[in-house]
Design brief:
The protein is an alpha/beta fold. It contains 9 helices and 12 strands. Strand 3 (57-59) and strand 4 form a beta hairpin. The protein is globular and about 55 Å long.
Length: 451
């Protein structure tokens, strides 16, 4: 909870109260103090945690630093490395240092950074503006080298990085598996993680590997088959830990049924972690496993529970059975890798969903990375508005409350959702399947140089 402390003192000394004049003066000082505190509170969110002392590890359902203090990862997704640009989006209009500094200034401590295997094997980037000295350190760099620069600058800002294999080929986030598209094999996928973990093992702010974004469709859990995601996660996770034993390994769920049965009949892509009940992931290094489901609202797909009069209780039940049981049993920490919405006010179903979910995360002390920092996610928008500079005040107010673990109101209300603004960059049409549509490839504006 946020609180304000007002001291009726001048220079640290108590103000006498034996006269009317002194009482009046004391009241004026109190009012000035209150106004000053309120202005400071609304100027910028003051909820960021103290810097974590890496490396991190898990302890029951918590993540702790090397000093034994709990660390709640509270961050954003900044996407682009998984698209045809092979670089984080928005650099066609801003400098990367400025972007990272703004992320930190909002109180976030973590960036989940999606990438494609194709991008990291490429030698070229696009959509980066070098005019007026912008992004000078990125000029002439390969995508992998651009990532190096971003990682190092994030470290200077005190930001932790989670690498997320979002796809094999560029812009192919809808492919259900970690192999089979563009000629990439499971070995290619594992080798990519081996290379990344070796490259960044010494970078203390690179804290983890999200092994595969949103396995779904034919992906299974606990079957032992080639498409068994639990088997593949163990294979890649242990390969990562062989090079970077201090990293956290993030394992998402699947979509379809799991071996051993499940309690719910529908899940988001990457959201089904019910398989952990009977077939948990096994890693060679203890205290490194984090489960990472995704959760979305009706702006992404109109799941039946969003039109049910009992939506509030249905959502609570789904979250508990889907992944909350892992947290409550102390099995492992939960990090919600993606959740987001265009509308976050109490006047829409989407807004009430995300507010209830944020309240749930805060009450449990779960970790999360919001989708997305970018404004150009077609069905969710982002923290930034379409100018790539201005923070969406209503979204940021919600996230500031979540960072501060403030109780969040999700009862029906009105007048809390801002009017939408036009999107200057192209955005895809939301898919009819339950997954967000995250990454259009923008057309770089005039003055943008492709390298």
């Amino acid at each position: 909870m946020k609180s304000f402390q007002v001291r009726s003192a001048v220079g640290g000394h108590a103000v006498p109260s034996s006269s009317t004049e002194n009482r009046s003066r004391r009241m004026r000082l109190i009012l000035v103090g209150l106004i000053t505190a309120l202005l400071a509170a609304f100027a910028a969110p003051a909820f960021s945690q103290a810097a974590a002392v890496t490396p991190l590890k898990t302890q029951g359902n918590k993540i702790v630093d090397s000093a034994g203090n709990q660390v709640v990862l509270q961050g954003v997704n900044w996407f682009g490395f998984e698209t045809g640009n092979h670089a984080p989006h928005g650099l066609w209009t801003r400098d990367y240092k400025e972007m990272l500094a703004q992320i930190k200034a909002q109180g976030f401590n973590t960036i989940r950074m999606p990438f494609s295997i194709q991008a990291l094997r490429s030698t070229t980037t696009s959509g980066i503006d070098y005019a007026n000295g912008h992004n000078a350190a990125l000029a002439g760099k390969t995508p992998q080298q651009v990532m190096d620069v971003i990682v190092d600058e994030a470290a200077r800002d005190g930001l932790m990085i989670i690498l997320d294999n979002h796809s094999t080929t560029d812009d192919s986030f809808m492919h259900p598996l970690w192999y089979g598209l563009g000629g990439y094999t499971e070995t290619d996928w594992v080798d990519t993680w081996k290379a990344l973990s070796a490259r960044y093992a010494s970078k203390t702010n690179v804290i983890g590997a999200d092994l595969k974004n949103e396995p779904h469709g034919e992906a299974t859990w606990g079957t032992g088959a080639a498409n068994d995601w639990r088997r593949a996660a163990e294979l890649a996770g242990n390969a990562v830990l062989a090079n970077a034993p201090n990293w956290l390994v993030l394992v998402e769920g699947i979509e379809g049924p799991v071996a051993g049965g499940q309690q719910l009949d529908r899940h988001w892509w990457g959201g089904n972690l019910e398989g952990v009940r009977n077939n948990p992931v096994r890693l060679n290094v203890a205290n490194r496993l984090v489960y990472s489901p995704h959760e979305y609202g009706p702006g992404v797909f109109a799941q039946p529970w969003f039109s049910d009069a009992n939506m509030v209780s249905i959502l609570a039940d789904r979250w508990q059975k889907g992944f909350g049981y892992i947290h409550d049993a102390g099995t492992a920490p939960i990090l919600i890798g993606e959740f987001g919405a265009k509308n976050v006010g109490r006047d829409t179903v989407e807004g009430r969903w995300i507010r209830q979910f944020a309240d749930y995360l805060g009450s449990k002390g779960m970790n999360w990375t919001f989708w997305a920092w970018n404004p150009n996610s077609g069905d969710t928008g982002g923290v930034l508005q379409d100018d790539w500079n201005t923070v969406n005040p209503v979204k940021m107010a919600l996230l500031a409350d979540l960072i501060g673990r403030t109780t969040i109101d999700y009862t029906p209300g009105s007048g809390t959702t801002p009017a939408p603004t036009p999107t200057p960059t192209p955005t895809p049409t939301p898919t009819p399947t339950p997954t967000p549509t995250p990454t259009p490839t923008p057309v770089p504006p005039a003055g943008t140089v492709s390298v």
